[in-house]
Amino acid sequence: MSITLHPVTLIGAGPGDPDLLTVKAVRALRQATVALVDDLVHPGVQRYLRRSARIVRVGKRGGCRSTPQAFIERLMIAEAQRGERVVRLKGGDPFVFGRGGEEADALRAAGLAVTVISGLTAGIAGPAAVGIPVTDRRHAPGVALVTGHGKDDGAGPDWAALARSGLTLVVYMGVARAETVVQALTDGGLAPGTPAAVVSAAHTPRQRARRCTLCTLCGAVEAEALASPALLVIGSVADLADLSLCPPAQTEAGAQAAVPRRQSAPVRRRLRG
Ligand code: SAH
Asked: Structure pTM?
């Protein structure tokens, strides 16, 4: 008997608040029979899945190591090849520091079709949540979205070029390496007094922000214990941060914590070995 294969859908859930899902994402969630969900995805998003849908949480939890990427790809492929309607839910946008490109390649290499549903990326929607318009033309001709993490081989962004660019810099995954980032930008010639901001847990009830400068940025992160997930915003738009926007009013969907759903252990067992 032949099995009908469905495209695997990579969905961006946006940052934090489940109300930031697109209508297209909600439609795809309603069709899904299996959902692989990253940690940064708000549990409230699961309310759009069918009760019968199987949920597999595949992110980092409580300091545990993240699920290996190869395992996630193998699981998506196996489920799709069994005829399941698989959705892969990622925080923000799946193609912005989300490994969505790698996953799409792996799926296509396995002969599966892929659909991508974009989401609001934290680097734009996060600063916006505290009133920072990252490309305000009175301040910057554009924005660079960069990672604070180097690649495995140690190669990271060209900080010296970024320091000269005049662009707003939004640094993802930069809190733990704030010192290195600040040093590299200062070495590249960016003035220590350049306005900066740290935006943490944007679009969640824990949303926090702090205005600072390049040279006080590390102190601000530490003093306020601004924890991950957080973004560094560097450039004069950071001065526009309106701290009265923290914390935001809780939305109806955000207020409803997810009810525990069927666990993923059987799926994991099936794929091991
Ligand atoms: N694909 C995601 C980014 C994944 S990388 C996107 O498009 O948004 C994870 C990093 O995103 C975190 O380390 C943090 O820098 C940032 N991030 C994600 N959610 C965030 C949030 N709610 N508030 C602030 N930063 C966030």
From this structure: 0.88
